[in-house]
Design a protein that fits this description.
Chain lengths: 179, 179
């Protein structure tokens, strides 16, 4: 399965109203804190890899996962090899990585308010230091990636947003650009 | 707290009989599979570090933990900095480590039959490729390490074993020596 997603900057208030008019189903809100690492033996910016610990919480419940993202294998669909698993204690993984020479590089913190609309997930992200974004995403078989991409553009349009405003840079990338 | 342990080669049958005579309490048997890794940027043999995924199972239940062990900070008590946490899926951690350039170096598989005796844990280890060992261990405050060490020797003697036969090399070290 491929993840197809499109992201634009957008004021949330107007989008929330449109979601309400369109009877989108609320999926709740979570907070994600992402801790990205630099490797001692590779330049991840150059190799286009990422190593991350994510702490996700929604009132009370928290879960921590560690994720490796490999380089893009296909630019247009933003497909990557990904290895991800839950860990018992993220701080211990942080200490383990530090002991191995991996260094905390950047933190991305965001509030994600999710809705379901026509089989797509619409996410209203408030990203610390960056502002408000809207993401539309879905999963598709390889054969349906193009159709799915057009679908995400249609949903954006329905929400009063312009697919041409698409931002392909990750939040981490945007934060690092700002530095 | 410090972990104080002593390990000798020993035939299990005679030790099991002594444990029975001494009314030792059985703590059950577990199987441990330890997967050790080489680092891409350091020689762990030289730096005296270790990175391990352990899969521990006792009839049906299995748990996987990832562990980093730092160099010995004190040789006599074998004290090390250790970072250890449960992971959701050990194979995913293996793939994540492989993607980062860590390579599977050695596997240590053992059956551990545990007993409690006079506040000490006595473990009868059958280590694949190495044979039968008995370990006696306890935890102690810094001030009590010496007394605890003498205690482990006393327990060994009670079991008909000789503290002078102590082996300080880890199972991993013994397996690598054999190669």
């Amino acid at each position: 399965m491929y993840e197809v997603e499109v992201k634009v900057r957008a004021d949330h208030e107007a989008v929330r109203e449109r979601l309400h008019e369109l009877d989108a189903r609320s999926l709740g809100t979570v907070t994600q804190e992402d801790f990205y690492y630099d490797a001692p033996h590779r330049d991840f910016a150059e190799t286009d890899e990422a190593l991350r610990i994510r702490r996700e919480s929604d009132d009370g419940d928290a879960e921590e996962v560690v994720t490796y993202k490999g380089p893009l294998v296909e630019r247009e669909s933003k497909t990557r090899k990904e290895h991800e698993t839950v860990v018992g204690d993220g701080e211990t993984v942080d200490r383990l990585l530090s002991a191995l020479g991996f260094e905390a590089a950047a933190t991305v913190t965001k509030e994600r308010e999710r809705y379901e609309l026509d089989g797509y997930v619409v996410t209203l992200d408030v990203v610390a230091g960056l502002g408000e974004f809207v993401e539309v995403e879905t999963e598709a078989d390889e054969a349906d990636v193009e159709r799915a991409r057009i679908g995400t553009y249609d949903v954006l349009s329905e929400l009063g947003l312009n697919p041409n405003d698409q931002i392909r840079t990750s939040y981490l990338g945007l934060l690092l650009e700002d530095e």
